[in-house]
Amino acid sequence: MVVDPGRAFGTGAHPTTRACIEALSRLERGSLLDAGCGSGVVAVAAARLGFGPVRAVDIDEVAVEVARETVRRNGVVVEVSRADVLRDPLPTSDVAVANIELAVVEELLERLDASLAVTSGYYSSEQPAAPGWSRVDRVELEGWAADVLTKRHRLG
User: Fold this and answer.
1) Taking residues 121-136, what's their average pLDDT?
2) pLDDT tens digits, residue range 57-113?
3) Packing angle, helices 41-49 and 61-74, rounded to 10
4) Which CATH class is domain 15-151?
5) For the chain, how long is the longest CA-to-CA vector?
6) In Å, what is the CA distance from 48 to each residue of 9, 68, 74, 92?
């Protein structure tokens, strides 16, 4: 994978990024949203793993530009746009990925229209408070964690 993060966050080497990609590799393929995409590494990896369509959003315009360049350099199809994941409308997807700080992950989970979420950006000793979601898998690397959560369906 070719990545030049420039002024955006994410070279792909951080344990949370690697844990997210490992968690994604275990999932059934479908549409994917990378919420808070940074340099676009996870979105590109998802496209290479066979997810599609893949959409990536970030609030930072520099990150959006870098993610678009990462997508171009890697020859995959990912729609990259600017959005505030806590305020703007987000597309429906089969899987959503959020490798961002824990408080943002928790708030984002309340808004997601996805069947599965892969969340990271926090230590192995932490886990997101996620009403309406159940953890079905966890990847831990170097003291960091990525969780795979499934949305609980209401009965009745």
Assistant:
1) 96
2) 999 999 999 999 999 999 999 999 999 999 999 999 999 999 999 999 999 999 999
3) 30
4) alpha beta
5) 50
6) 20, 15, 9, 20
Supply 121's token pair: 């950006």
Q: Which residue type occupies 154?
A: R
* The Cα angle at residue 135 between residues 44 and 22, in degrees rounded to 5: 30
pTM over 0.85: yes
CA distances from 57 to 39, 60, 134, 149 (A): 10, 9, 24, 20
* Residue 83 near residue 106 (C-beta atoms within 8 A): no
Q: Tokens for 35, please give them.
A: 């919420």
Q: How far apart are CA 148 and CA 25, in angstroms?
A: 11
Question: How would you write 66-89 as a 3-class SS string?
Answer: HHHHHHHHHCCCCEEEECCCCCCC
